[in-house]
Amino acid sequence: MYQKKARGAKPWIIMACVIATFIWLLYALGDVLTPFIVAAVLAYVLNPLVEWLQLKRIRRAPASMIIMALALLILLSLVLIIVPMLLNQFNNLAERLPQIVGFVQNKLLPWLNSVSGDYIQIDQESIIAWLQSHTDELSNTLKEWIPTLMRQSGNVISGVSNLVLLPLLLYYFLLDWKRWSSGISKLVPRRFIETYTRISGNMDEVLGEFLRGQLMVMMIMGLVYGLGLMLVGLDSG
């Protein structure tokens, strides 16, 4: 009885050791594997576009090249346009903190007192004193964050989107995506192939819809909020 339990525990111990070794390798080789992981995720998201181009009678290789070029162009546009814009807006916010304090002191607090009447009494002097005492500190903190953000963004860009490896990896991931999928399915024992196909199909459908839906929601919300606030004339929209 004891021997049977010991034999049954061995596969689980081996599996746990393999998983622990795999996780350790991912951690140890994180900087090396990052471009491969980024390329794999992008290829998974963009593969339906490649298949759509194939339906338009475009071969797999040119379709992969077109989608890869468009994806990298969008990523570079985001990095080169939006990141400097955000840093500039942080600078503007730090410079306008005295104006914000003046607005709160001269307009917002008197208006709140006039609206609240006798129900709520706002201690204007305490609030104004607190704002004035923390304005310089907050402004200096924002100005100190900007170089840090620039350094961190540079590290992220250089570590994640390697300009040499990422286009090549993304192209070959898109080009051979179907071949790899069929190769993995061939490794599955035939008695489990139906279960594997059903589970992997459901996972692929749910995960793909989730990722593409999240990207679409982020793009729509960014355009609506960013462009909308800029069109109404709000600073740092």
The biggest beta sheet is recorded as:
none
Helix and strand run: HHHHHHHH
Count of folded domains: 2
- Which parts are unreliable, with pLDDT below 50 for 5 consecutive residues or more? 1-6
Helical content (DSSP H or I, runs of 4+): over 70%
Query: What percentage of the residues does DSSP assign to strands (E)?
Result: under 5%
What does this structure look like?
With about 240 residues, the protein is mostly helical. It has two domains: about 1-185, no CATH class; about 190-235. It is built from eight helices and no strands. The protein has helices at about 1-30, 30-55, 60-95, 95-115, 125-160, 165-175, 175-185, 195-230. α3 packs antiparallel against α5 (about 125-160). It is elongated, with a radius of gyration of 27 Å. Mean pLDDT is about 75; it is low at about 1-5.
